[in-house]
Design goal:
2 domains, alpha/beta, 7-stranded mixed sheet, Rossmann fold
Length: 337
């Protein structure tokens, strides 16, 4: 299956098919200025070998798998390696891995020689249904997640559900958090599939539904000036939980807890908690409200007047709402207590 994303920067295809990784060279085509494969140590060697065999002249750079590795230092190492190859302006950076690889690779591609071709091949469910499209690229700085970055749309995205066969159970649940988020804000039928468990019969269908929804939002608001902020449901507190935990919790786990924390409708929160628990995601953690608020106020989504949050009073329908820091702290404190 192919989904087409149309943005101001470019129009690009997303290929979703089992076995697509084996056809990567055919799908990507010539890399006239050189091919540079970026991956991390968490990606199974079989997927790296599958890709690199199709690009025998490509340079492969592997960094340590960790959210902490998504920093300026690793970014600099990647650029230095690209320059040493050398990768020319007509070259292609191919990011093979999860969200960290995609974020880092996309940012390197956005800034190297003022922008080169970038192809995403996400191998985790989280990246396949969320971070692989939309053009957001970034690294962390000073303990703040994704505070340095750029919008740089990929030239194409190749999604092979077969890569999920090597994904640990915790990482699978990590990705499902973003799928459940999508269901909460824009797809009641998908949420129903999570409630009755039928989602398990069609993971490719889950991926496709999430991508189709995100495409519709990104095409309306490429630079996140308006409606695209709806995709941040669960992230207001989630990013802060992630930074405060120091790596104890994964991104999707923090989004799950962030959704629960910010929901004001008790009935919907109970239904959400049941779904999250069923797929193996946490619904709460211990935290110090003041520290979480410090991190929220430093987040790129914050402004001097307050924070734009996503309110869900009906499953399948999210609404944007700007709240003051005081109101947000009251919500957070109530959940903590």
């Amino acid at each position: 299956m192919e989904i087409t994303v149309r943005t101001r920067e470019r129009t690009y295809p997303i290929t979703i098919a089992r076995g697509a990784l084996k056809r990567a060279a055919e799908l990507i085509g010539p890399c006239e200025g050189g091919a540079f494969i970026l991956t991390d140590s968490g990606v199974p060697r079989c997927w790296v070998d599958e890709l690199s065999a199709q690009f025998p002249r490509a340079s492969v750079h592997v960094f340590n798998a960790s959210e902490r590795a998504k920093n300026i230092g690793t970014y600099t190492e990647v650029l230095e390696h690209m320059a040493a190859c050398p990768i020319r302006r007509s070259g292609t950076l191919i990011a093979l891995g999860g969200g960290v690889v995609g974020d880092l690779g996309g940012f390197a591609a956005a800034t190297y020689m003022r922008g080169i071709r970038y192809v995403g091949i996400p191998t985790t469910l989280l990246a396949q249904i969320d971070s692989s499209i939309g053009g957001k690229t970034a690294v962390n700085l000073g303990g703040i997640k994704n505070i340095v970055g750029a919008f740089h749309q990929p030239s194409m995205v190749i999604i092979d559900p077969d890569t999920l066969s090597t994904l640990p159970k915790r990482q699978l649940a990590n990705g499902l958090a973003e799928a459940i988020k999508t269901a909460m804000i824009g797809d009641a039928a998908l949420f129903a599939a999570f409630e009755d468990g039928t989602w398990k019969n069609d993971i490719q269908g889950v991926i496709t539904a999430c991508l189709q929804y995100k495409r519709s939002i990104v095409e309306q608001d490429e630079d996140e000036q308006g409606i695209r902020r709806i995709l941040n449901f669960g992230h207001t507190f989630g990013h802060a939980f992630e930074s405060a935990s120091g790596g104890e919790y994964l991104h999707g786990e923090c989004v799950a807890m962030g959704m629960v924390a910010i929901l004001e409708n008790d009935e919907i929160r109970r239904r959400l908690e049941k779904v999250l628990c069923a797929v193996g995601l946490p619904v709460s953690c211990a935290y110090e409200p003041r520290r979480i608020m410090e991190l929220v106020s430093a987040d790129k989504k914050a402004s001097a007047d307050g924070v734009t949050i996503v309110r869900v009073d009906e499953i399948g329908r999210g609404e944007l709402r700007t709240v003051s820091y005081g109101e947000l702290e009251r919500i957070l404190t109530r959940r903590a207590g």
